[in-house]
Amino acid sequence: MAFYSRVSGSVGMITLQNPPVNALSAAVRQGIVDTMHRALSEPEVKSVVICGQNGKFCGGADIREFGATMAGPPLVPMVHLIEAASKPVVAAIEGIALGGGLELALSCHYRIAHSKARLGFPEVALGLLPGAGGTQRLPRLVGVPAALDLITTGRHVTAAEARQLGIVDEVTELNAVDAAVKFAQSVAGKSLDARRISTYPCPRPPDLDAIFERAMQQVRRSSRGAIAPGTCVQAVHAAVTLPYAKGMERERELFSVLFNSGQARALQYYFFAQRAVSRWSTANGARWDTSKPRPVRKAAVIGLGTMGRGITVSLAQAGFTVVAVETQEKQLSEAKQGVSGMLERGAKRRGVPLAHDKIKYSCSVQAVADADLVIEAVFEDMALKKTVFQQLSAICKPGALLCTNTSGLDIDELASQTQSPELVVGMHFFAPAHVMQLLEVVYGPRSSPEAVATAMQVGKKMGKVSVAVGNCRGFVGNRMLKQYLEQAFFLLEEGATPEQVDQVLEEFGFAMGVFKVSDLSGLDVGWKVRKADGLVSPASTGTSARIRGGSRYSPLGDLLCERGRFGQKTGKGWYQYDKPGGRVAKVDPWLHGFLEDYRAQHGLVARRIDHQEVLERCLYTLINEGFQILQDGIAAGPEDIDVIYVLGYGWPRHRGGPMFYASQVGLDKVVERLEHYQQIHPDVPGLQPSRLLRKLAAINNPAIHKWREVIQKPRSQL
Ligand SMILES: CC/C=C\CC(=O)SCCNC(=O)CCNC(=O)[C@H](O)C(C)(C)COP(=O)(O)OP(=O)(O)OC[C@H]1O[C@@H](n2cnc3c(N)ncnc32)[C@H](O)[C@@H]1OP(=O)(O)O
User: Fold this and answer.
1) Which of 63, 121, 288 most suits a substitution to test ligand 1, by most atoms within 8 Å of the C-beta?
2) C-beta separation of 147 from 236 below 8 A
3) What is the ipTM of this complex?
4) Domain-wise residue ranges, the chain
5) Is 123 a catalytic residue?
6) Is 103 annotated in the active site?
7) Is 476 in the pocket of ligand 1 (CB under 6 A)?
8) Cis ω on the peptide bond leading into residue 580 (within 30° of 0)?
9) What is 291-474's CATH superfamily?
10) pLDDT tens digit string along 341-362?
């Protein structure tokens, strides 16, 4: 709602009240309309201030209402009522003015912002455009290039930048509501003719066509199939080419297309999914609201390879004191240089102070003795990790949390090397660890709720989106990825090429196809793991080179590694590069010949594989494993999986994540297609639909938020 009060005798004050962000729900919109009428009808009131309760102006339209039937007064007539008011209306912007909140502010005649406020049009991230006049008013106020930038990227601007752009009239370090009241008194009775943004002509720079062409090219490059950014450009174009009223009609038409799109539904689902994962729960019943984290001031990192360096930087930037350990002098000195460079670049980019003094380097593991939390980031080798955990258990102070950055090894096996297995958890960062937002916090059967809560809290302080997951080979992300990779290899055996598979996946919206990613991360990484698992050679002589444990296996990746083709780092992998370390993937005729020889050697006849088969086999097996993970209680809900895939594996956000995507395709269709491929490839277990997937499909595809009711709680692992 919005409540009305009178301050200093002549100022009508309208306060938005809808915690936590004063979103414009039906009740708030109704409240604004009612209180505006009241302020305009009271003769003593000479001017009006609109503000938000609890230091937040307004977070925009109430996203929770988007799925429901529209109730209450619509936003557009509401903002027109304010702009047309005969008394000056001043927006007092504290905290945030986002989306519909900024549109509300732009309909006011003046805007006063607190210096810490952030303003923006983030609708594009929800698959929308600013549909309450934002696309028509902003270009009139700040010009076309700045409006295109803000509306198509959704970026938030500081109060200082908003002042520079002309979005706000004044910035104050003091109480913005008090400042707005004073300001409102000072403009009472003044003409409002020059203050109604909708009456401004839209600036027309001479190179207008080129500006729009560039904007379209830019969004096409960055949007990977998302429709909202390009539609935002079209709406701003209408502001330049049409009179205001017609521009508003065009904005409404374009908004309606987006609002009713599957992409908007996916992005809005994802918005809430990303917030839902912080309310974690584990298979044995521990929960975010009943588990208290331990205080962590001093952290330590063991092993300063690529991952360890990124983790060190991220911890230091988050304000932790860090002990960084690398036992070899030479590697330690290289790591120091590497970390310093990363910190300097980070400080420059983010305009924050350098965090060098937060880090102490050492060659000795003893240096971590008084750390509250230690993250082991040595090579992915169980024997080595076990030794490190035995050492840590002997050295660290009682109560210290011992974490491993393994990307898939057994957390419980590591915990069993220590005297306090309840204090062992996985903290699986994604490369580059100081950039990537995702953190899988992996609890073993013996990890205490307090240990999970502490790792989740540390991740949050590091600016990560932390997702709590159970302990199994590959956890959530890499376990699902295995199925996806496997299908991609099988498709090559059957007649596809890496570029064909990648093109299909990139058209779907992945930033890079599976083979390009594999070249980027290094083919040798998976090879080492497969070797350690004893997969690289057939179990016994006489067993087919393409069978392991009775199931189909493709040795293609192993064969490339045996030839020294590790991807970008060696200049050759699934593609060729102009030099080792080169970035531009080029089709490699050698690889095509190699695939032909391989097929001939194994009696495989290449066939034409269409787009649909590539997509279905790669995605549906990955999704199927996701259902198996839910069934096993490794992830608490589909949101956890979707957030992991969007933030860690480049799944296109406008498709919501793999589980949401499956819900949109229809679970019965996913089952049907998996069964179809399973009949053709009975030796591929990943094509066998999981029990949970079948169960959900059989009860008529319940909405994704209902799945948790069907997922059986696995028995406690404790
Ligand atoms: C005609 C249509 C015209 C306009 C369309 C729009 O206005 S669309 C909405 C545009 N606004 C946004 O996109 C803002 C979205 N919110 C945010 O970016 C952040 O929440 C925000 C406001 C920067 C605050 O961030 P913070 O990290 O402090 O908190 P958190 O994100 O965890 O949010 C706290 C809870 O508030 C809920 N919430 C936030 N914004 C909205 C909203 N616009 N509508 C409804 N609910 C919102 C959020 O879900 C959190 O609640 P939770 O229960 O944890 O999910």
Assistant:
1) 63
2) yes
3) 0.99
4) 2-259, 291-474, 496-500+513-601, 611-717
5) yes
6) yes
7) no
8) no
9) NAD(P)-binding Rossmann-like Domain (3.40.50.720)
10) 999 999 988 888 888 899 999 9
